[in-house]
Amino acid sequence: GPATGTNFFGIAVPGGDTAAGLAILGLLAALGGLILNLTPCVLPVIPIKIMTISQHAGSPGKSLYLGLCMFAGVIGFWLALGVLAATFSEFADPSRLFGYWYVTLGIGVLILVMGVGIMGAFNINLPDKVYMVNPKADSAQGSFLFGVMTAVLGLPCFGFVAGALLAGSATMPSGTIITIFAALGLGMGVPYLVLAAKPSWVSKIPRTGPASELVKQVMGLLLLAAGAYFAGSGVLALLKSDPARLVSLPWYAKTVHWWFVGLFAAAAGVWLVWQTVKISKKAGNRAAFGLVGLVLASGGVLAGVDQTIKARDDLWIPFTEAELSSALESDRVVVLDFTADWCLNCKALESAVLLKDPVKSELLGDGVVPLKADLTSTKAPGWDKLKELGRTGIPTLVVYTPGGAEPWIASAYTSDQVLAASEAARGGGS
Question: What is the pLDDT of residue 132?
Fold first, then answer.
């Protein structure tokens, strides 16, 4: 692939061939793991994990022990993936697994079941032998599995870390790859360890009574929103695995699951406001939780509207090698966006950067061709192009200069960076 340098949010990424370079890679990976907790993939379920920790705050020793088990689950999951990535280069970006429709759909169904279960709709009773591995979060095994689940939910948003830190992974030493994955798990798991060590920080979360039940119900509805997203993405991955169906897929079919996401999020907001008014007589509580509920409800509706408008008014041209070659041969700049329906970071960057002025105007301007490589399915041709560029993860944005100069590539970017890259490409092709 091209020998372009990589950066992580503007920080130059060194090679791992020296001790200092490896240390910097580890620190950046830990930062990436920490940021993963703030991505749309993981953020909705963080309150559930905090609530679980807080329920054991009455016993600081047990709280710390269970927090350590959760922490070990997060690190263990990423470390296992690191070993796989060091052994098989195709595992360098494990989020690619979501391109298999049955994986994404299966995770969606599992999260939907969890959402219904956490709201108290049912209790799962399993054979006695199954309870040798206690799935409840008040056990060591349950907390460890809780940590594993946290890491799994971070996978669809993992690409922005992989794209920068694991570029050229096929030529990386095994120790470097494993270090990056282990450090990522460390960064992702630290907040839960800190909260477990300081349970007083979350002690205000109600442990029993109507308020506790309300927290569970709202969290359950948010899990239903997350489950709808993954299940819908899985269905789209199935549909897009057939090139003929991909071409004929109407724009509104790509947005149905977003309206289910919005419906559950809005329901969580409305239920939070209504029940808070019934449970609490304090004006401060009503105002604070009313605001949170309003944000949830409006955010759910806006997500559906935003995705519907983007699908209906799609400005992107589907990627093919022929389209890319034709555009470059006619001396036009090409902006190629690698994305997928299951990649929430891709959606966030597209909404915040690519489809807002001034970048949107640049993409629609003369001399620029916007191409989209949809990697929702593992059978998408864009995967080969991504590999050719020496990248492993998405989101990835590439700006090609007419005339064959090295392209600009980034996995995390700002409007100014994209505009600068496009302007530089225009100058290089003149």
Answer: 42
β-strand pairing of 333-339 with 368-374: parallel
Contacts of 367 (CB under 8 A, 6+ apart): 331, 332, 333, 426
**Distance in angstroms (rounded) separating the CA atoms of residues 256 and 232:** 8
Helices and strands (H and E) in the chain: how many:
16, 7
What sign for the dihedral angle of Cα 359, 364, 366, 370? positive
Q: Say what the pLDDT of residue 171 is.
A: 63
Using a cut of 0.90, tell me whether the model's pTM lies above it. no
φ, ψ (nearest 5 deg) of residue 48:
-65, -45
pLDDT at 98: 84
- What's the CA gap between 140 and 125, in Å, rounded? 19
CB 151 within 8 A of CB 78: yes
Residue 188, Cβ density class (10 Å: 0-12 exposed, 13-18 middle, ≥19 buried)? buried
Q: How many CB atoms lie within 10 A of CB 34?
A: 16
The low-confidence residues of the chain, meaning pLDDT below 50, are 1-5, 122-135, 430
Residue 408: what are its φ and ψ, rounded to 5°?
A: -90, 130
CA angle 364, 370, 371 (to 5 degrees): 160
* Alpha carbon distance 150, 255 (integer Å): 26
* pLDDT value of position 390: 81
Cis amide linkage into residue 210, ω under 30° from 0: no
H or E element in which residue 310 lies: helix 283-312
